[in-house]
C-alpha cells in the first residue's frame, strides 16, 4: 500500500529534499525539537566513553539538526547526505561538522577504523526503497552496513532512529546489518504510544552486549527489544564445536556414558585424545 | 573539507578500486579559519591518522608550517606540537577543488567546501 504521507513514497531523497523542503524542514521549531530529542536519545544509546571528545559520523545528516546535538556534547563529526540542498542549509547554519555529498547505499567512502561511533536520525528507512531501476534495497543496505562496519573502531556503536513502514522492513534492515558483522538489535521506546513510539537500531562492532532498556515500559518487555547475534558470531559458535579438542570431546562422551550408566574406561592417560599421525 | 576528513576519505566505493587512498587534492580555494583548540581531541585522534598523508596534504596546500615530517614521540604532553596538528587538521579547509582517485584518476569535485562523492550508475 502506498501512503502519500511518507516522504519516501513521494520522490527520491535528493529530489524530495530540495531547497524549499530543506528550508521548511530546518525552520520548523517543532521539527528541530523532535530531531534534537531523538538524537539525544541516540547519543545515550551509543554509550560513548564519558567526557571524551569523539570523532563521529552522522549518516543522513541533512541540515545538521542531529549534528548540532553531537557538537553540544563536545564531539567532532562528519556528515554524509545525498541532498545538496540540505547540506547547504547545514552550512548556512554554521554547524561545525564537515559535510560530504554521498549516497549511503553506495557504501561509505572512509578508511578502516576512522570513527568512534555513528548516529543516524530519520534516514535509514529511505534505503528500503528502490528509487532507480538498478537499485536493489537488500544489496544497498548490505553495502552500506558492511562499509560502516569497516570504518568504525572496534569499540564503536552505531545508533539509528528510523521510521520502518512495516515489520518486513525491520527484518530486511536487521538481516543485512547482521550479515555485515554487527551485533545488536532493536530498541522500541514508548511502544504503547502511537505518537511517542520510536524505533532505534543499536549496532555494536566489538561483540555482543546486552541491549539498553527501552523507555516508557515498566519492565523491559520482549516486544520492546529484539536482539540478534551477528552472522560472524553464529559462524564462530558453530565452528567451535568442530575445533573442540579430541580430549574435551572424549571426556564429555565419557561423562555422558557414565550418566547413562554405561561402562566407561576409568583410566585416561596423557595420551587420551592426543593427535596421532594421519595414515592413508 | 578539512584535512582531518581528507585523511579518512577513500574512493574504494568505486567499482574495481581496492584501497582508493589517499585521494590527491587539487585545491583551487583554500580557507583558513579559527577553530577552538581541544588538546584532548587532537591527541585522541592522532593514532588514527595517516601522518604521512596529513603532512603531504598540508604541504601541498602550502600550510605545513613547522609540522615535522615524521610524527614525534610522546606528543600527548606537547601542547605546542598538538596546536600545530590542530591547525592543519581543523583550521585549513579546501573550499573549491577536486579529489582524485589514485587508482582510476576519477575526479570528485569539491564545491563550497563539500566533496561530491556521488557515484554514477556504472561505477557501483
Ligand atoms: C528526515 S531528514 C533527517 C536529517 C537529520 N538527520 C536530522 O535529524 O535533522 C532525512 C535525511 O536523510 C537523507 N537521505 C535519504 N536517503 C539518503 C541516502 N541514500 N544517502 C544519504 N542520505 C540520505 C535525506 O537527504 C535527508 O537529509
Provide an overview of this structure:
- The complex is a heterodimer of chains A (280) and B (124).
- By secondary structure, chain A is an alpha/beta fold.
- Chain A is elongated and about 80 Å long.
- Chain A starts with 12 loop residues before the first helix and ends in a 21-residue tail after the last helix.
- With 124 residues, chain B is α+β, with helices and mostly antiparallel strands.
- Chain B contains four helices and four strands.
- A four-stranded antiparallel beta sheet of chain B has the order 1-2-3-4.
- In chain B, strand 2 and strand 3 form a beta hairpin.
- The interface between A and B is medium-sized, with 33 and 32 residues.
- Chain B: It is found in: Cytoplasm, Perinuclear region; Nucleus, Nucleoplasm.
- Chain B: One of its GO terms (molecular function) is protein heterodimerization activity.
- Chain B: One of its GO terms (cellular component) is perinuclear region of cytoplasm.
Short description:
Chain A has 280 residues and is α/β, with parallel strands linked by helices. Chain A has helices at residues 13-16, 19-27, 29-46, 65-72, 84-92, 137-151, 167-179, 231-243, 246-259, and strands spanning 55-59, 76-81, 98-101, 117-121, 157-162, 183-189, 198-204, 225-228.
Topology:
The complex is a heterodimer of chains A (280) and B (124).
Chain A (H helix, E strand, L loop, with lengths): L12 H4 L2 H9 L1 H18 L8 E5 L5 H8 L3 E6 L2 H9 L5 E4 L15 E5 L15 H15 L5 E6 L4 H13 L3 E7 L8 E7 L20 E4 L2 H13 L2 H14 L21
Parallel strand pairs in A: 1-2, 1-4, 2-3, 4-5
Antiparallel strand pairs in A: 5-7, 6-7, 6-8
Helix pairs in contact in A: 3-4, 6-7
Chain B lengths: L2 H6 L15 E9 L6 H7 L5 H10 L18 H13 E9 L6 E5 L2 E2 L9
Antiparallel strand pairs in B: 1-2, 2-3, 3-4
The complex binds S-adenosylmethionine.
The site of S-adenosylmethionine has 21 residues of chain A, from helix 4 and strand 2.
Amino acid at each position: 500500500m502506498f501512503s502519500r504521507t511518507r516522504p519516501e513514497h513521494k520522490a527520491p531523497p535528493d529530489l524530495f529534499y530540495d531547497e524549499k523542503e530543506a528550508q521548511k524542514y530546518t525552520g520548523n521549531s517543532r521539527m528541530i525539537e523532535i530531531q534534537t530529542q531523538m538524537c539525544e536519545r541516540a547519543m545515550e544509546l551509543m554509550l560513548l566513553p564519558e567526557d571524551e571528545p569523539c570523532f563521529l559520523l552522522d549518516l543522513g545528516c541533512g541540515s545538521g539538526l542531529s549534528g548540532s546535538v553531537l557538537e553540544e556534547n563536545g564531539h567532532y563529526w562528519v556528515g554524509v547526505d545525498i541532498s545538496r540542498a540540505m547540506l547547504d542549509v547545514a552550512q548556512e547554519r554554521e554547524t561545525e561538522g564537515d559535510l560530504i555529498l554521498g549516497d549511503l547505499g553506495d557504501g561509505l567512502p572512509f578508511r578502516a577504523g576512522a570513527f568512534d561511533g555513528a548516529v543516524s536520525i530519520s534516514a535509514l528507512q529511505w534505503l528500503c526503497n528502490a528509487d532507480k531501476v538498478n537499485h536493489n534495497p537488500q544489496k544497498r543496505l548490505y553495502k552500506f552496513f558492511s562499509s560502516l562496519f569497516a570504518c568504525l573502531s572496534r569499540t564503536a556503536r552505531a545508533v539509528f532512529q528510523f521510521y520502518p513502514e512495516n515489520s518486513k522492513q525491520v527484518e530486511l534492515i536487521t538481516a543485512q546489518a547482521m550479515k555485515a558483522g554487527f551485533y545488536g538489535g532493536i530498541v522500541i521506546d514508548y511502544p504503547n504510544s502511537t505518537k511517542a513510539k520510536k524505533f532505534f537500531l543499536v549496532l555494536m562492532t566489538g561483540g555482543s552486549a546486552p541491549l539498553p532498556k527501552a523507555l516508557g515500559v515498566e519492565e523491559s518487555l520482549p516486544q520492546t527489544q529484539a536482539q540478534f547475534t551477528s552472522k560472524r558470531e553464529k559462524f564462530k559458535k558453530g565452528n567451535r564445536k568442530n575445533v573442540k579438542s579430541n580430549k574435551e570431546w572424549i571426556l564429555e562422551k565419557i561423562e555422558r556414558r557414565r550418566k547413562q550408566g554405561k561402562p566407561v574406561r576409568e583410566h585416561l592417560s596423557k595420551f587420551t585424545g592426543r593427535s596421532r599421525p594421519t595414515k592413508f | 573539507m578539512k584535512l582531518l576528513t581528507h585523511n579518512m576519505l577513500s574512493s574504494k566505493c568505486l567499482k574495481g578500486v581496492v584501497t582508493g587512498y589517499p585521494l590527491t587534492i587539487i585545491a583551487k580555494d583554500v580557507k583558513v579559519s579559527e577553530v577552538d583548540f581541544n588538546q584532548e581531541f587532537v591527541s585522541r585522534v592522532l593514532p588514527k591518522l595517516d601522518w604521512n598523508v596529513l603532512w603531504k596534504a598540508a604541504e601541498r596546500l602550502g600550510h605545513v608550517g613547522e609540522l615535522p615530517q615524521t610524527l614525534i614521540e610522546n606528543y600527548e604532553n606537547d601542547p605546542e606540537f598538538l596546536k600545530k596538528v590542530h591547525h592543519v587538521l581543523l583550521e585549513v579547509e579546501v573550499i573549491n577543488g577536486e579529489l582524485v582517485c589514485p587508482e582510476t584518476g576519477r575526479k570528485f569535485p569539491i564545491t563550497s567546501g563539500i566533496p561530491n562523492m556521488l557515484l554514477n550508475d556504472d561505477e557501483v
